[in-house]
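for the recovery benchmark. C-alpha coordinates below, seq after
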Protein backbone atom coordinates (compact mmCIF):
# COMPACT_ATOMS: atom_id res chain seq x y z
CA UNK A 1 0.00 0.00 0.00
CA UNK A 2 1.27 3.45 -0.94
CA UNK A 3 2.16 5.69 2.03
CA UNK A 4 1.01 9.30 1.90
CA UNK A 5 3.15 11.97 3.52
CA UNK A 6 1.39 15.08 4.73
CA UNK A 7 2.91 18.07 6.43
CA UNK A 8 0.96 21.12 7.55
CA UNK A 9 0.50 23.46 10.47
CA UNK A 10 -2.70 23.05 12.47
CA UNK A 11 -4.13 25.76 14.68
CA UNK A 12 -4.75 24.38 18.18
CA UNK A 13 -6.24 26.06 21.22
CA UNK A 14 -5.60 24.60 24.65
CA UNK A 15 -8.15 25.60 27.24
CA UNK A 16 -8.30 24.92 30.94
CA UNK A 17 -11.64 23.61 32.14
CA UNK A 18 -11.54 23.08 35.87
CA UNK A 19 -8.71 20.63 36.48
CA UNK A 20 -8.61 19.40 32.85
CA UNK A 21 -6.92 20.77 29.74
CA UNK A 22 -8.75 20.64 26.42
CA UNK A 23 -6.97 20.80 23.06
CA UNK A 24 -9.15 21.86 20.12
CA UNK A 25 -8.49 22.47 16.44
CA UNK A 26 -11.09 24.20 14.29
CA UNK A 27 -9.33 22.90 11.15
CA UNK A 28 -10.56 19.38 11.93
CA UNK A 29 -13.33 20.27 14.40
CA UNK A 30 -11.78 17.85 16.89
CA UNK A 31 -10.93 18.09 20.56
CA UNK A 32 -9.37 15.95 23.25
CA UNK A 33 -8.44 16.43 26.89
CA UNK A 34 -5.84 15.55 29.48
CA UNK A 35 -5.07 15.98 33.15
CA UNK A 36 -2.06 18.18 32.30
CA UNK A 37 -1.14 20.61 29.53
CA UNK A 38 1.48 18.14 28.24
CA UNK A 39 -0.97 15.24 28.28
CA UNK A 40 -3.53 17.28 26.30
CA UNK A 41 -0.86 18.11 23.69
CA UNK A 42 0.23 14.46 23.45
CA UNK A 43 -3.35 13.27 23.08
CA UNK A 44 -3.93 15.94 20.45
CA UNK A 45 -1.06 14.55 18.36
CA UNK A 46 -2.43 11.02 18.76
CA UNK A 47 -5.96 12.13 17.85
CA UNK A 48 -4.81 13.90 14.67
CA UNK A 49 -2.80 10.82 13.62
CA UNK A 50 -5.81 8.53 14.18
CA UNK A 51 -8.14 10.93 12.36
CA UNK A 52 -5.97 10.95 9.23
CA UNK A 53 -5.26 7.23 9.44
CA UNK A 54 -9.00 6.55 9.46
CA UNK A 55 -10.02 8.88 6.61
CA UNK A 56 -7.24 7.53 4.39
CA UNK A 57 -8.10 3.93 5.27
CA UNK A 58 -11.77 4.55 4.41
CA UNK A 59 -10.91 6.45 1.23
CA UNK A 60 -12.84 9.53 2.38
CA UNK A 61 -9.95 11.98 2.86
CA UNK A 62 -10.83 14.29 -0.05
CA UNK A 63 -14.52 14.46 0.89
CA UNK A 64 -13.89 14.98 4.62
CA UNK A 65 -11.15 17.59 4.22
CA UNK A 66 -13.08 19.59 1.63
CA UNK A 67 -16.13 19.58 3.91
CA UNK A 68 -13.90 21.02 6.66
CA UNK A 69 -12.76 23.85 4.38
CA UNK A 70 -9.36 22.46 3.36
CA UNK A 71 -8.00 23.18 -0.11
CA UNK A 72 -5.77 21.05 -2.28
CA UNK A 73 -3.22 23.27 -4.04
CA UNK A 74 -0.50 21.70 -6.20
CA UNK A 75 -1.16 18.25 -4.70
CA UNK A 76 -0.78 19.62 -1.15
CA UNK A 77 -3.64 19.82 1.36
CA UNK A 78 -3.91 23.15 3.19
CA UNK A 79 -6.11 23.66 6.26
CA UNK A 80 -8.27 26.76 6.67
CA UNK A 81 -6.32 29.69 8.07
CA UNK A 82 -7.32 31.12 11.45
CA UNK A 83 -7.45 34.88 11.00
CA UNK A 84 -8.01 35.77 14.64
CA UNK A 85 -8.08 34.10 18.01
CA UNK A 86 -9.02 36.56 20.70
CA UNK A 87 -11.23 37.14 23.69
CA UNK A 88 -14.16 39.45 23.28
CA UNK A 89 -16.18 40.98 26.12
CA UNK A 90 -19.88 40.22 25.82
CA UNK A 91 -22.58 41.74 28.02
CA UNK A 92 -25.99 40.15 28.21
CA UNK A 93 -29.09 41.07 30.13
CA UNK A 94 -31.75 38.45 30.63
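predicted aa per position
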Amino acid sequence: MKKTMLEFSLPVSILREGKKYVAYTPALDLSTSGNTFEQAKKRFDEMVYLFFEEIFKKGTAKEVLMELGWQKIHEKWNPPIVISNESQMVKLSY
